[in-house]
Design goal:
Length: 368
């Protein structure tokens, strides 16, 4: 049986350990020791060095006790702010924070669930193939742990990422690529009271460009958003430089490129109309994820859901995760719903039953 008390106590211990992005060392050390005490092969990589973090990803190898293809499970150690000094509170079998911080179920629930699943297999002497864990860093700040991971420490084809809201049984098979966009508008400074006609307002150029942009929900697959605008100074000076930080997402590469081309045209047209200049740049932060409906891993997960009496639900999401990065590196990566709710807010919570149900599901997936 999955131990309700054991998985809950582990989860409570984990959320009490401060682990904002780039500062996950304390929780990494806790997990390293916990896995080492069980006799597993545990190591870490140098991913933190590449992004300014204080630790790397943790990898765990659990030897096979039976036949079958190796499989991996992943969850991230970092949490969004405010996440320091978390005080978990259990009320009516639901875990909340005290209300001053996030709970940290995103994604310490995933960490606790995969560990409890292996505990269950070993306790019941249930045969399983070789299993790998990856406890990643800096997912919340740009998936830097997955981006900079040492792939040699995860020698598998299939990875299940325990990092989605929604009921246990939710399976993410599609998520979008994201483009990070930086735009600089340049005009010409002048005294706004004495000779404004000799100036070119970069703010005005930006406003013209934004006015003509299609933003927010573009279509079923595509979104775009302006996150930050910066520039300007004294009111008696015509502003000569403004920067915009934005993003665009789509599950279809052609739709993403179409949106990027549209946004760039709005910017260059506005600069040309008002006599200024524009520099439009972007980079793909992570690729789109698409899992074939005939995937063997997907079939295995769906069958495990049915085995424990849960209806599997294939779904898509508008957000990205480590799964996108892993998929881009050539792994088959599915993200599973673990039951966490209202993540990234101080109202975050997770039901204890979600922890136990998901641990039971993961344990079934792990079996030979």
């Amino acid at each position: 049986m999955i131990s309700k008390d054991r998985v809950l106590n582990l989860f409570m211990d984990l959320v009490k350990i401060d682990s904002p992005s780039l500062k996950e060392k304390n929780v990494a050390d806790y997990l390293f020791s916990l896995m080492e005490e069980k006799g597993y092969n545990v190591t870490n990589d140098c991913a933190g060095d590449a992004c300014g973090g204080n630790t790397g990803n943790i990898f765990v190898r659990i030897p096979a006790t039976g036949e079958g293809e190796p499989i991996a499970f992943s969850a991230h150690m970092d949490c969004v702010s405010p996440c320091c000094g978390v005080v978990p509170v259990v009320k009516d079998d639901i875990v909340y924070s005290s209300g001053d911080t996030v709970l940290g179920g995103d994604d310490k629930s995933g960490l606790a669930i995969m560990i409890e699943a292996v505990n269950h297999l070993e306790e019941e002497s249930i045969l399983h193939p070789e299993i790998y864990f990856m406890f990643s860093i800096c997912e919340e700040s740009g998936m830097h742990g997955a981006i900079n991971m040492d792939r040699s420490l995860l020698p598998v084809k299939n990875i299940l990422v325990l990092d989605s809201s929604g009921d246990v049984g939710r399976i993410i098979t599609e998520s979008p690529a994201q483009a990070s966009i930086n735009i600089t508008f340049k005009g010409k400074s002048a005294h706004a009271g004495i000779s404004p006609e000799s100036g070119i307002s970069a703010i005005q150029i930006a406003a013209e460009a934004i006015y003509n942009m299609n933003l927010l929900r573009i279509d079923k697959e595509t979104t775009a958003n302006l996150g930050r605008i910066e520039g300007g100074g004294a009111t008696n000076i015509v502003t000569d430089k403004v920067t915009l930080t934005a993003e665009a997402r789509s599950t279809k590469d052609e739709s993403l490129q179409c949106q990027l081309d549209h946004m760039k045209k709005c910017c260059t047209d506005a600069a040309a109309k008002l006599g200024g200049m524009c520099k439009f740049g972007y980079e793909i932060s992570y690729p789109a994820l698409h899992i074939d409906e005939k995937s063997k891993l997907l079939a295995k997960v769906e069958q495990s859901c049915r085995n424990i009496g849960i209806n599997p639900k294939l779904d898509s999401t508008g957000g990205g995760s480590d799964a996108n990065i892993l998929y881009g590196k050539g792994y088959t990566a599915l993200t599973l719903g673990v039951g966490m709710s209202k993540v990234h807010t101080v109202d975050e919570f997770i039901a204890v039953k979600s922890l136990t149900d998901c641990a039971e599901l993961v344990a079934d997936i792990m079996k030979c």
